[in-house]
Amino acid sequence: MTWAVKRAPSATQGVVRPAQWIAAASQAYDAVALPVAKVLLAAMIVLVAVQVVFRYALNYPITWSEELTAYLFAWLIFLGATVSIKRDNAPALGVVVDCLPAATARFVHDFADLLALVISILLLVASGRACIDLMQQLSPVLQVPMGYPCLALPIAAAGFVLHYLARAAERIGHGPRGAGSVAMAAALAVLALMLPQDWLTQDWPISVLFGAIAVGFMIGLPVALVLTFGVVVVLLNQHQPLLIVPEAMFNATSNFILTAIPFFMFTGAVMEVGGMAERLVGFASSLVGRFRGGLLYTDIVASAVFADMSGSAVSDTAAIGSVMLPGMVRRGYDPAFSTALQAAAGTLGVLFPPSIATIIYAWVANVSVAQMFLASFLPAFLVVISFAVIAYIVATRHKYPRETPCNAREIARAFRGTFWALLTPVLILAGILTGAVTPTEAGVLAALYALVASAGVYRTISPRNLWHSLEIAVLSTSRVMFVLAAAVLLGWELIMLQVPQSLSTEMLSISQDPLVLLLLLNVALVLIHGVMETSATLILVVPLVLPIFTQVGIDPIHLGIVFLVNSALGLLTPPLGLVLYVAAPITGLRVETVARAAMPFLFALLVDLALVALVPQISTIVPTLLR
Length: 627
Prior knowledge:
Blueprint: H1 11-57, H2 65-87, H3 95-98, H4 102-134, H5 152-172, H6 176-194, H7 205-218, H8 223-237, H9 244-253, H10 260-273, H11 276-288, H12 294-310, H13 313-330, H14 335-346, H15 348-351, H16 356-365, H17 369-398, H18 408-433, H19 439-458, H20 463-496, H21 499-510, H22 514-529, H23 534-551, H24 556-571, H25 578-587, H26 591-597, H27 599-614, H28 617-625
Helix pairs in contact: 1-2, 1-5, 1-19, 1-20, 2-5, 2-20, 4-5, 4-6, 4-9, 7-8, 8-20, 9-20, 10-13, 10-19, 10-20, 11-12, 11-18, 12-13, 12-14, 12-17, 13-14, 13-25, 14-25, 14-26, 16-23, 16-24, 17-24, 17-27, 17-28, 18-19, 20-23, 21-23, 22-23, 22-24, 23-24, 24-27
């Protein structure tokens, strides 16, 4: 028998082996988290569908389904957030780090990841304690200890810790230089959170809050962790417990009204992978392709119609852009302008109902979702017209081609091929505007209808496509809602610091003229949208300014439309400009190139914003007539 000689482990092996274990644990967590989140979304759809059947068909409401759906929603959000962290595609502002020299940028990335690791550990500890405390409190309907639903947060925080540890271990495994960089970054990360207790003054907590947020943005932390970081620093500085952090974030996400968001996201995903987007493009082309530069108008029309199904600017840009942009480039259209047009047309997902941003505003401002949907129609069509004018000017100047004109029979054939897809927004809006169903129930009905149409009528969706649709919806929802949860937490801290009262006093001391206040608001929103997503902006800013504008006589519905048009502007404005980052990779262009080409559309949106702000009837006439 031969005996192998057992060698003593080298220093390198001692470092690499734990790194491999951590990496394996991170991979295993991720391999479980995403499938579980998909199953949770499917369960939510089934639960609400059953609720609709029992309520409307059997006249026997199920009292516990809404509460259970809300808790599943929270779990979906936080598990989905761990996947975004693992894949390093959580919303973040990287423009500052990208401008640094390579070596400095690597160190800043190390520091950001280690700071995120410290924040995640604090969140893990605080959420674990919160779950223990909440075991004594029963949920209103299900009567289960609240500690069990709240386990979503410590489980997600454990995932954050694993993923950030895996990144640190991977860098340490690269050699002494990587290990030294991580060690220095770790020391700075700990100091960033520990020093405020004895070093920073407690007299200026607002300065501490916004200083910490500014640092978080500059080093490229994910937006949700930036906002959490700011609140944690203030709480540590004031020697307050961190229990409010997980409690506020869980309360923000376990909300049944907001469960409409993943349902509309799923509807858009099904229509995208099921090929309905291509059918919409074909129908739009049959209507407007005959004009010079017909594909430009086709892009705008198809994006507007798809916006009525997905409610998401990002989904709109990805779905229509993947169909339209390759064909436009092949037909000789300028790639930069075509991509900019698609990015601009994608912003229509914020304006046309069932816009997710509209649902969030209605929830925050406590106004009717149906009234907001009605109010958004005219402003949305105003934006469509302004984009079409730009397309006409460019198409005429560059003599872009016309598509083959379609006769009435061909248009009718294209309409028949798209009929079942076009029926989706009709069902959504009819159900909500007539009050027959809630927005959440409309979202589920739309999702089920899209599934039936794709599988039964068009026969373009398979089990694999369905599984992929769930993934798209989970990741898109968690990106929005994780930021929203952190924004609610920051909003709570701002209220504790009495920022709304101070802001109201300051703004009203400048002027009480509604137009002046609207001008100030829009300037501030343009700046805020440069660093923050629409959902976070709505959560943070609306509660601060709504009482001010109500006091000077501005209709909350009108104010909401101003927010939405400004949000469309923010989606197209670098450095954050999400639709730019979605559209640019489709044609392989740099984001900076697309941003320059988008300047005419930014100008058009500014004009539209001015019209909407100065003429409130554009927003209020439709809901007033149909009230």
